[in-house]
Input
Amino acid sequence: MQDAVDRPPEGGPPPKQRGADPHRWARGWRRTALATGMLVYPSVTALGVAQYSSGAAAAAGFAIAGAFAVVYVLAGGSVVRRDRGRLWLFHGVMVVLFLAELPFARNLAFYLWAVITALTALMLRRRIALIVLAGALPPLVVPWAVRPWHTGPDLLTALMVVFTTMTVYAYAEMAGANAELLEARAEVARLASEAERARIARDLHDLLGHSLTVITVKSGLARRLAESGSARSVEEITAVEELARQALTDVRAAVSGYRQVSLAGELARGREVLRAAGVAADLPAATEMVDPAHQELFGWVVREGLTNVVRHARATRCTVTLSPAGVEILDDGVGAAASCGNGLTGLRERVEAAGGGVEAGPVRPRGWRLKVTVGTAEAART
Output
């Protein structure tokens, strides 16, 4: 019976398979202690046999009490194996042994009944009130009906049956709740781990996508300057080296969770990379009009939007417009249909987490628009 607390209520779903559990040993020890303690009840019944029987009758009574203890242990094994059919079989045998013990131990045989009632409560938890009532009735009725046993209802024995059943049932409920709590904690830890992996993947995509794009553009510019014999090629190569070092720093910061993006910094870097790519940049010089709570988010938007302009748009001009709760990036490039790549998907996740909305798509007569709004009715609609 020691593992009966892990069974679901009758008619409920089967128990989930759980992996390694650091609390398993502690729970097993408590269940074993409770199950072993219930063996005291057949011992008390044996004392009743010694009190009310003698000779061959006493021998029969002791044998029945011992057989009950053995069947109880076998029932516990069936619970461990989750063999519900055999458990009900052993339950029926225990009822028969209890009835056979009544003439030999009299009212003390109801200690066996207490074990049966507690086991029934564990098997049929949804009917606990009915089980407790049914368990209390025999100690009240039988001693009163069988006059040689007792002068009236055995109230103390009835209370013993009730409190034993309720104690075992309460332990089972607490053990079940603790198991569910451990499963919930494991699920929370798993979800947190998945969320952290998703954050790192999103940040690395945004960081490396932008940094490698800038390095590619500036390296190409440096190559063209070097071919023309311009001394400025050294400056561009130096800038590429600095960008590579900064990219490495950003990756380390992203993995450790300390990466922060500023809107002003992304506009400054964006202006530089657009210039290197030969795109006329119309970017705001100030960011004070943007709500401070949205500055970092809009920095990510600017980074992703300008990176896509340089990569895919083949544009000649790019404009960034800021408002207190919005940012818009517009170019005059090819304006292909919206894709669902990692960059746009990650950006949507960031914006939706902040309660905003994203609009991305081509505009007429040509070009592409990326618009993000946060904390407005428009954002709620998107």
Remarks:
- Strands lie at 280-282, 317-323, 326-331, 356-362, 368-374.
- Residues 4-190 form one domain.
- The first helix runs from residue 24 to 37.
